[in-house]
Amino acid sequence: MKTQLSLTLEDTQAQSRSVAQVMRSWAREDPNAAAHWIHSLEQGASRDAAIAGLAQSLVSRALLWMLSRTSFGWR
User: Fold this and answer.
1) Dist CA 49 CA 70 (whole Å)
2) Dist. CA 4–CA 11, nearest whole Å
3) Is 73 a residue whose pLDDT tops 80?
4) From CA 75, how far away is CA 64, in angstroms rounded?
5) Closest Cα to residue 44, out of 32, 52, 36?
6) CA distance 51 to 19
7) Range of the domain at 18
8) Sign, CA torsion 15/25/57/40
9) Which of 12, 24, 58, 66 is the residue whose CA sits 20 to 30 A from 50?
10) Is residue 75 domain-resident?
11) Coil, strand or helix at 70
């Protein structure tokens, strides 16, 4: 039972990582569509992972935007 439960937990974690990765990619291309899709999901691990992926993508974009406008000339 413990092995089966561990595999299930590992599978769930892998699925969450995959959803977050796909969401990061999609959010770079069309953040509005990604946000609408998240809104259509039911509560649960997949929705949480999608929200995390969207947030990571938006934070990354914001940081790159801020760095491109610094007086240090980083681009």
Assistant:
1) 32
2) 10
3) no
4) 8
5) 52
6) 9
7) 2-68
8) negative
9) 66
10) no
11) coil
pTM (two decimals): 0.64
Q: What angle separates helix 45-68 from helix 31-40, to the nearest 10 degrees?
A: 160
| Per-residue pLDDT band at 53 (split at 50, 70, 90) | confident
- The residue ranking higher by pLDDT, 56 or 11, is 56
Report if residue 48 sits inside a domain: yes
- Nearest Cα to Cα of residue 38 among 25, 19, 57: 19
Q: How many domains does the chain contain in total?
A: 1
| pLDDT tens for each residue of 32-43 | 888 888 889 899
pLDDT of residue 60: 86
Q: How far from 28 is each of 11, 43, 45, 68, CA to CA, in Å? A: 26, 23, 22, 17
Residue 16's contacts (CB-CB under 8 Å, 6 or more residues apart) are: 45, 46, 48, 49
- Judge whether 38 lies within some domain: yes
Q: Is residue 39 part of a domain?
A: yes
